[in-house]
């Protein structure tokens, strides 16, 4: 069934698909960014990372896996870990990665460090 504004949306560059239904994922009182949940069944949950990668887990499995995923996402965003309780997240940018294989030096020599 077409939405009542379908004709209008075709005339614009910006569209508003949806509505979509998902659940936010919260660990220790803090929402986990880039992580959504869809209830697959009463005891199953589908987790979607960055709207691209998904897996279905039991609720018990999710209880063990989601805190790890929350920490991994937080570290990838430059935080030391996913926050706990009332403590604000601690943002400490990590050292910039440095490529060590096949680096070209100004002399034109390649390094195999």
Describe the structure.
With 113 residues, this protein is of the alpha+beta class. The chain is 19% helix and 29% strand. The strands form 2 sheets. A 4-stranded antiparallel sheet has the order 1-2-3-4. A two-stranded antiparallel sheet has the order 5-6. The protein is extended and about 60 Å long.
Give the topology, please.
Elements: H1 6-9, E1 23-27, E2 30-41, E3 44-49, E4 53-58, H2 59-76, E5 103-104, E6 110-111
Antiparallel strand pairs: 1-2, 2-3, 3-4, 5-6
Question: What's the short version?
Answer:
By secondary structure, this protein is α+β, with helices and mostly antiparallel strands. 19% of the residues lie in helices and 29% in strands.
Query: Helical percent range?
Result: 10-25%
Name the structural class: alpha+beta
Task: Provide the succession of SSEs.
Answer: HEEEEHEE
Mean pLDDT: 82
| Low-pLDDT runs | none
Report the principal-axis shape.
Answer: extended
Instruction: Compute the CA-based radius of gyration.
Output: 21 Å
Characterize the main sheet. Answer: 4 strands, antiparallel
Please state roughly what percent of the residues sit in beta strands, choosing from under 5%, 5-15%, 15-25%, 25-35%, 35-45% or over 45%.
Answer: 25-35%
Number of alpha- plus pi-helical segments? 2
Q: How many DSSP-defined strands?
A: 6
Largest sheet, order of strands side by side?
Answer: 1-2-3-4
Head-to-tail CA distance between termini = 60 Å
């Amino acid at each position: 069934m077409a939405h009542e504004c379908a004709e209008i949306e075709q005339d614009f560059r910006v569209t508003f698909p949806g509505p979509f239904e998902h659940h936010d994922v919260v660990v220790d009182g803090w929402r986990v960014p880039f992580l959504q949940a869809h209830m697959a069944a009463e005891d199953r949950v589908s987790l979607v990372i960055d709207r691209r990668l998904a897996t279905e887990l039991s609720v018990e499995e999710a209880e063990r896996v989601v805190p790890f995923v929350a920490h991994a996402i937080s570290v990838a965003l430059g935080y030391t870990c996913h926050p706990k309780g009332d403590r604000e997240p601690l943002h400490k940018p990590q050292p910039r990665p440095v490529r060590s294989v096949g680096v070209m030096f100004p002399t034109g020599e390649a390094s195999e460090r």
